[in-house]
């Protein structure tokens, strides 16, 4: 048994024994937890991953004459200014206002540019008051010149996380990176055995006020993070999915660009790569045992991100040793893995923190308050309007055509029914393709007489139990105007078109406005 | 070896590559091809004992051949070694080494560009 005060005395004297969490795993394996807990004083952890729930409070200082900024933009990225006159919160995921730049540059990139000492263009607008008469400001700023900059990240350092794959036949672009079709790859984001909250799974030493490593300088734990949850399945003491989280803060002016990075998840949006490390004082044998956890003992679940719902199906489970090997097996097929978070930099974080402690530059802290270790669950958002499903859309009589039909007959069917899409089916009513009025025009232009020559065989479909909002996104993504609705046996049950969805929105608006459409 | 071949529209109808394959018995693999009204360029892999002679022949026939050592380059300043690119590579040319550095093997790279599009910091570029 040791106390934090005793460990700090050793740190001050320069004889504290500090190791990184991965080193601790082998030390405990060799010497046992008891001996290790006597010999080792501090274990340092580290992670360097995409943490979307990050940002910075900026206080620009007052101009002369002064301004009460109501909207602010930094290099074209909006920061929230509904605060006092010259305060703003710049969120990491906010994309550029400029549609040509869009997702390629966002709040996270501004944060990196500021930390790199680059000049950033500030544009502020105001409505003007007696005490703050100025209505606009346009000026370059640097991190040095502005009054204050505090990074405050509402949710960082997830204790374990889901592993992502995609069972659908198309590539998906997600916050878990690019997911190839038909479970063609797997991505994961936790640093595994190096990750801070995995090494103290019951928050025995990490708490409110704990001094930590944040982006190359010292930072602090403000509290548990948003979506902190504790009522989760555990294996070897460690949650098998997302669980505990931390809210972190640190002085941006002292941060080091080696440990923080603006990034964009392709076709998803900007995010901030945050380097965070937490020292764990080895007060007793139990804490030593926890910090000795290996990648193999950390279990996680592979989730199908092809299903765009709040609860996505679990495909199977794996562990970080397998994931870090570069390939895992799903249903007997070898699938390559991508980490998304950088182990190289996570290790750099843990090493840097270790060095600070060894050099006596960084003392450990006793938490002001413990983090909640039980009773926390994440409540869902129950929306007033339940999701409208495809089957809720007013059904029209199903009009279909057969693949051996003649172009002339198909053209007549389209005209007679005043429609633009016809699902093509076989004798069992199973979907074989789709033909549009454009395809028919094309057939006439190129003198084709058979439907099979002009129909589209790879059809984007809708299912009856899918939400209409998901169909609207699909229509938008594939730039199409209608989808056949099919059941599990691939039998056509109807069509849903962009017009149906517009009508649905129109109908809702009518209801909200007492029968008047707007 | 891998090389970029550039050619003008004037020779587009000549079967130069086909002749080169027949005369010099080379393996010729097209990795990327862009053909426009102003000519074209192809990223190819040429292998065989007479690959140098075949290249000389192509040049004589009017194709500009630029051998490349690397198909893609990784900007070491921008790369964070996050590994997002590793699993999207269709030919397993990207791996994470012992020290957790992400490394691209240009021998196996076919220049498909998937890694370029998957990189969160735009650290990878196609060599032209």
Secondary structure elements and their pairing?
The complex is a heterodimer of chains A (518) and B (128).
Chain A: H1 4-13, E1 18-20, H2 21-31, H3 33-39, E2 42-44, E3 47-50, E4 55-59, E5 71-74, E6 77-79, E7 87-91, H4 107-115, E8 120-125, E9 136-141, E10 148-156, E11 163-165, E12 172-174, E13 177-179, E14 186-187, H5 196-199, E15 207-208, E16 211-214, E17 217-224, E18 234-235, E19 238-239, E20 246-251, E21 260-265, E22 269-277, E23 279-281, H6 285-291, E24 299-304, E25 314-319, H7 320-324, E26 327-330, E27 333-338, H8 343-358, E28 369-370, E29 401-402, H9 407-417, E30 421-425, E31 431-436, H10 437-445, E32 462-463, H11 468-478, E33 482-486, E34 492-497, H12 498-512
Parallel strand pairs in A: 1-2, 11-24, 14-27, 29-30, 32-33
Antiparallel strand pairs in A: 2-23, 3-22, 4-7, 4-10, 5-6, 5-8, 8-9, 10-20, 12-13, 15-28, 16-17, 16-22, 17-20, 18-19, 21-22, 24-25, 26-27, 30-31, 33-34
Chain B: E1 2-7, H1 16-24, E2 27-36, E3 39-47, H2 51-60, E4 64-68, E5 72-74, E6 94-96, E7 102-104, H3 114-118, E8 124-126
Antiparallel strand pairs in B: 1-3, 1-4, 2-3, 5-8, 6-7
Helix pairs in contact in B: 1-2
Largest beta-sheet characterization of chain A = 9 strands, antiparallel
What separation lies between the terminal Cα atoms of chain A? 71 Å
Largest interchain contact: A-B, 32 and 23 residues
CATH level-4 homologous superfamily of the largest domain in chain B? ACT domain
End-to-end distance of chain B, in Å? 15 Å
Q: How is the biggest beta sheet of chain B arranged?
A: 4 strands, antiparallel
The strand count of chain B comes to 8
Which strand order spans the largest sheet of chain B, edge to edge or round the barrel? 2-3-1-4
- Strand element count of chain A: 34
The CATH first-level class of the largest domain in chain B comes to Alpha Beta
CATH fold annotation of the largest domain in chain B: Alpha-Beta Plaits
Oligomer: heterodimer
Helical amount among residues of chain B, as a percent range? 10-25%
pLDDT average of chain A, as an integer? 93
How many structural units, i.e. domains of chain A?
A: 3
